[in-house]
Amino acid sequence: MTDTTGKKGRPSWDRYFMQIARVVAGRSTCLRRQIGAVLVLEKRILASGYNGAPSGLSHCEKTGCLREAQGVPSGQRHELCRGLHAEENALLQAARYGTRCEGGMLYTTHVPCVMCAKMIINCGIKRIVAVEQYPDTLAREMLTEAGIELVLIQDET
Predict the structure, then answer these.
(1) Would you say 80 and 64 are in contact if contact means Cβ atoms under 8 Å apart?
(2) Residue 142 and residue 25: Cα distance in Å, rounded?
(3) For residues 123, 79, 56 and 86, what is the CA-based torsion angle, rounded to 10 degrees?
């Protein structure tokens, strides 16, 4: 692996933060997909998040997946879920501890949904780096309209 400066073996900043997002995703308690997010400003990690139930509530591993039980397709009816998305958790963690994220970047294993896209826009995030697509064209349209750069990189894990 070569980074953008040509140094062998050293990951680029995008790969570095994406590797961390992958590790964060490992904490997910979602039965459908494991997603991780890392909020970065000036090459410093501000907050991280993974998808799962709110703090102190039973995880889907214990209660079962409401979306699976009701046959809800991916990318639809986000309100029918016990969990928060990884991006939401990262932004909420920053807010809880009074951490400014305006002008920052979000590294996430999946392109955000429309709910997360709206939060990302209002938080002033300027760039999103993701590996996996997500079936939500409205989210991508809104991110583009807001002038947020969306970069898809290949996964090398």
Answers:
(1) no
(2) 25
(3) -40
State whether residue 111 is helix, strand or coil. Answer: coil
- Distance, CA of 35 to CA of 131 (rounded, Å): 11
Q: Which of 42, 87, 141, 156 is catalytic?
A: 87
DSSP-derived pairing of the beta strands 44-50 and 105-110: unpaired
78 vs 117: CA distance, rounded Å = 13
pTM: 0.90
Cα–Cα distance between 58 and 146 in angstroms, integer? 36
- Alpha-carbon distance of 154 to 157, in angstroms, equals 9
Q: What digits encode the pLDDT tens for the residues 101-151?
A: 999 999 999 999 999 999 999 999 999 999 999 888 999 999 999 999 999
Q: Rounded to 5 degrees, what are φ and ψ at 72?
A: -80, 125
3-state DSSP call for residue 80? coil
| Tokens coding 103 | 């002008």
Nearest to 86 by CA among 133, 37, 53: 37
Check if 61 is active-site: no
Q: CA quadruple 89, 93, 96, 101: dihedral positive or negative?
A: negative
